[in-house]
Design brief:
Rossmann fold; 7-stranded mixed beta sheet
Length: 243
C-alpha cells in the first residue's frame, strides 16, 4: 500500500514538472505508444485498443499522454526513425494454421532483428499481447533477436501487478482462448524487463471500444472484464516508465 502511494506521488511529481516545462517552452511532450507494424500478419487487429487505453490512462493518471481516434495513428515500422524515437512499443496479432500443419505468422527480416535488439538494449520497452496463437511464430522469431536470453514467467506477487492497481492473482483473464491460465512472460536485460509477453488473456480485446468489440465478436464485453484489462494495461505502462 505504502509502495503504491509512493509510486503515485513520483508519477505526479515527474509528469507535473514535465507538463509545466512543456507549457513554458512550448514543447509537445505528451507520451505516446508505438504500434509496431510488421509483415506478414494483422498488426492492427484491435483497431481501437490503444486509443481506448490511452484515454483511460489520461483520465485516471497524471501522465500527459497523447489521445488518438484509431490505433493506426500510432504505427511505427521496425527500424524507422519513429521506431527508435518511441520508447514504449506495443505489438499484437494472430497465428494462422495452414493446411500443411505449419503456422503462418510474424517473420523478422535481418535488419529488423538488428533494430529490435539495438532498441531494446538501449532503453526501449516492448509489450506483446497475444491476440490468439501469435506465440506459435513469435517466440522462435524473437530467439533470433536474443538467442542468449530466455523468457521468465512473472509470479503473481511481481510489482507489475501491484504498482498502481492491485491484481492479487496476477494477470487477469479477459478472453477465454484455450481456457488456459494467463501468463506474463518477461525478457530481462540485467534487472530490467525489456519485453513483456501477455499470453492467454488478450488485453487488447478488453481495451477496444464496446462498438468495435461488438462489431467483431457480435457481443459486448462484460464491463468488469474491460475495466480489468484497462487497469492492467495502465500497470504495464507505469511499470515500464518507472524501471
Amino acid at each position: 500500500m505504502v509502495l503504491r502511494i509512493i509510486v503515485k506521488l513520483i508519477i505526479l511529481i515527474i509528469f507535473s514538472f514535465s507538463a509545466i516545462f512543456a507549457q513554458n517552452s512550448n514543447i509537445l511532450s505528451n507520451f505516446r505508444i508505438g504500434l509496431v507494424e510488421y509483415e506478414p500478419g494483422d498488426w492492427n487487429s484491435d483497431q481501437t485498443a490503444l486509443a481506448e487505453l490511452l484515454h483511460f490512462i489520461d483520465i485516471n493518471t497524471n501522465i500527459p499522454i497523447i489521445n488518438i481516434n484509431r490505433d493506426v495513428e500510432l504505427k511505427v515500422k521496425i527500424g524507422s526513425n519513429d521506431f527508435f524515437k518511441t520508447k514504449y512499443l506495443y505489438m499484437t496479432g494472430h497465428g494462422e494454421l495452414r493446411n500443411n500443419g505449419a503456422w503462418k505468422g510474424i517473420k523478422f527480416k535481418k535488419d529488423e532483428i538488428n533494430a529490435l535488439r539495438t532498441h531494446l538494449l538501449n532503453g526501449g520497452f516492448l509489450h506483446i499481447d497475444d491476440n490468439y496463437n501469435f506465440d506459435k511464430t513469435f517466440f522462435s522469431e524473437m530467439k533470433k533477436v536474443f538467442p542468449e536470453k530466455e523468457w521468465v514467467v512473472l509470479p503473481h506477487n511481481h510489482n507489475i501487478f501491484n504498482i498502481y492497481y492491485t491484481f492479487e492473482n496476477g494477470l487477469p483473464k479477459i478472453h477465454k482462448h484455450d481456457n488456459k491460465e494467463p501468463k506474463a512472460l518477461a525478457l530481462f536485460h540485467g534487472n530490467k524487463i525489456i519485453a513483456l509477453y501477455t499470453l492467454e488473456t488478450d488485453l487488447g480485446d478488453g481495451w477496444e471500444s464496446d462498438l468495435e468489440h461488438e462489431r467483431i465478436t457480435g457481443y459486448k464485453l462484460d464491463s468488469s472484464k474491460r475495466e480489468e484489462a484497462l487497469k492492467m494495461g495502465t500497470n504495464i505502462l507505469i511499470f515500464a516508465l518507472n524501471q
